[in-house]
Amino acid sequence: MSYDKAKIAEDLFNPDISIIMAELESGPKESSVLSVNTGISESEIKTRLHNLIDAGFVTVSGASYGVDSEKLAKFMENDENYKGVVDGLTELDSYLN
């Protein structure tokens, strides 16, 4: 499946989307549970996750959302922006310790 890597990276680091993704880290959740936990309406959750759903990073089964953790991990490993952030934090940590 083809997708815009820059748009996916932008979405993953967007605080309005990452709050939802953080809720999905522990496993799939019903949209109603996500809505209660995040304070975001169910329709807005679907809107915010649209690109990630289309690209296959977020799965939808009925009213339940989940994350394709393997695909997400692979993307993060290969994303230069993410690598730069991690490398920078690792370097900073080495100076501080």
Structural description of this entry:
With 97 residues, this protein is mainly alpha-helical. The protein has a domain at 5-68: Arc Repressor Mutant, subunit A (Orthogonal Bundle), CATH 1.10.10.10. Helices cover 68% and strands 10% of the residues. The protein contains six helices and three strands. It has helices at residues 5-12, 15-24, 31-38, 42-54, 69-78, 80-96, and strands spanning 29-30, 58-61, 64-67. The chain has a three-stranded antiparallel sheet. Strand 2 and strand 3 form a beta hairpin. The chain starts with a helix and ends with a helix. The model has no long low-confidence stretch (mean pLDDT 85).
Structural key phrases:
97 residues, mainly alpha, Arc Repressor Mutant, subunit A, 3-stranded antiparallel β-sheet, 6 helices, 3 strands, 68% helix
The assigned CATH architecture of the domain at 5-68 is Orthogonal Bundle
Question: In sequence order, what are the helices and strands, one letter per element?
Answer: HHEHHEEHH
Largest beta sheet, briefly?
3 strands, antiparallel
Strand-residue proportion: 5-15%
Q: How would you name the CATH homologous superfamily of the domain at 5-68?
A: Winged helix-like DNA-binding domain superfamily/Winged helix DNA-binding domain
Shape: globular
Structural class: mainly alpha
Q: What is the CA-CA span between the terminal residues?
A: 43 Å
CATH fold title of the domain at 5-68: Arc Repressor Mutant, subunit A
What is the number of helices? 6
What proportion of the residues is helical, as a percent range? 55-70%
